[in-house]
Write a structure and sequence with these properties.
Layout (H helix, E strand, L loop, with lengths): L4 H12 L6 H4 L23 H4 L5 H13 L3 H5 L1 H29 L5 H13 L3 E6 L13 H20 L5 E4 L7 H11 L4 H17 L11 H23 L3 E4 L7 H15 L6 E6 L5 H14 L4 E6 L4 H7 L8 H22 L4 E6 L3 H14 L8 E6 L4 H9 L4 E7 L2 H14 L5 H23 L1
Parallel strand pairs: 1-2, 1-8, 2-3, 3-4, 4-5, 5-6, 6-7, 7-8
Helix pairs in contact: 4-19, 6-18, 7-8, 8-11, 9-11, 9-12, 10-11, 10-12, 10-13, 13-15, 15-16
The chain binds flavin-adenine dinucleotide.
Amino acid sequence: MATSGPRHILQVVVTSCCRHGSVRMCSHSNTSTLCAVCKTTPQALLFSDHHRAFQHKSTWELLRALLILRACGSNFLVDNSLKILRKGQQIFGDQILGLFLHPTVYSQFVAGEESSDLAVTAKSLQKMEIRLMVAPTLEEDVGESSLRQDKYDKNLNEMFRLAEMTHCHGGVHPCLQTKITALVSADTLRNLSHIYVKKKADSWRVMVQHMASAMLNRVQLPDIPGINHRDIENMSIALGRFRQLGEVAATKNLCLLVDAEYSYVNPGCSLVALAMMAVFNQNRPVVANTYQCYFKGALETLTLELDVIESLGACFAAKLVRGAYLERERELDTTNICASYAETGDNYHRVLEHALMHAKKAGSDRCLVIIATHNEETVRHSASRLLELGLDPKAGHVVFAQIYGMAEQITMPLVHAGYLVYKSVPMGTLSQVLPYLARRAAENRSVLHGARKERELLQQELSRRLRSMFQR
Ligand SMILES: Cc1cc2nc3c(=O)[nH]c(=O)nc-3n(C[C@H](O)[C@H](O)[C@H](O)COP(=O)(O)OP(=O)(O)OC[C@H]3O[C@@H](n4cnc5c(N)ncnc54)[C@H](O)[C@@H]3O)c2cc1C
């Protein structure tokens, strides 16, 4: 088998050829051609090869992952995970709680706190040709805002520290995620979101221009009807932080990914993300926004934001996700949310299609689409669409991403098939990562097909290793 780039391409085709599973029959060197023999696309990327998926994991790591997935089978534990973690923190304190959590859940999902921790994780990812996406775990919710700015200044310094680490250990084109609520009061964002929740392209474009100009020229935002003076001041100060963060990302060659949060702050977060795109994405995609496809209006949101960014002459960049805050969003307003898991999947594919069409039109230097999912069907569908649209999976403008500690059975086949894949690696102290860990518990509920399959594959790989130990 060939050893460089084309080797990967061969594998895409081999896995796709259900009828001709041999390399020779299916060999060709062009990603955009179908298999010469059976004319299939990579629809059958194999996601059940447990040996290959977990070959880089120790047996203890597999056992730990399996135990955690089993615990996520308990609805009681998952529904109350954050409460249980917070109570444990109150009763035992971080140190004692850490004795239990550090070797288990924390190590499964979090790389650590220090540069040396990230170095170890980054090295092991690079060995497998997986790219690095660092995920800070700084965030706040409405009602937790600080009247003083020093909380957000401190968070900015932490973002600089993480940007430096990402730059040092990141390898090729590393990404750094960020939450807007880490750098400006969530209450201010909610108030701004109230005004901008109804999406009208013209008013959005004007507001994005005001923000971009305030960011660039270091001046206060003009008055906005319905927004009080304190919020204008908070946002004006925060735009200075976003400018500094954008400058660091641009100079350190990082891509800064703005995470999507709760619906009541998201329009405010998007305005900031778009203003940053307008400022920093003139020549290449430095800043990206995130689109949550469990919202019925996700396509409308992406289309509007893409139009605004194109009209400002900047490069558009998007991370596409299903959305991590389903339960809470349902409590707030069920009418905005897709009625079922299948509907969210269909919505994701519609949004993806629009983003891919733009990627094709804009070209590899002026666009970035991150397909951030653990969903097999979506990954297969995306791989097929890339091939059908003639989008080169190695060009770097359409990439995949999964979360550290999850979905190895998706990540490894994608890497072996020659796609560019990132792992989102969280960094933070135990107390910072508790909400993040609670969200991962919800995503690993055994009712979801992905979690069930991962559990089965872990079991199969552990059994295989046990058998081979006894056969020796
Ligand atoms: C790299 C990366 C970055 C991410 N960044 C963000 C981010 O910025 N913001 C964010 O919110 N999330 C983010 N996520 C998490 C993401 O939104 C999902 O929660 C997670 O990836 C699980 O979805 P999935 O596509 O992997 O597929 P699956 O595991 O197949 O789908 C699970 C998802 O489907 C949806 N769903 C489940 N049941 C139903 C139902 N009954 N009705 C409607 N929808 C349902 C929910 O969104 C749920 O999370 C990120 C994920 C990755 C991999």
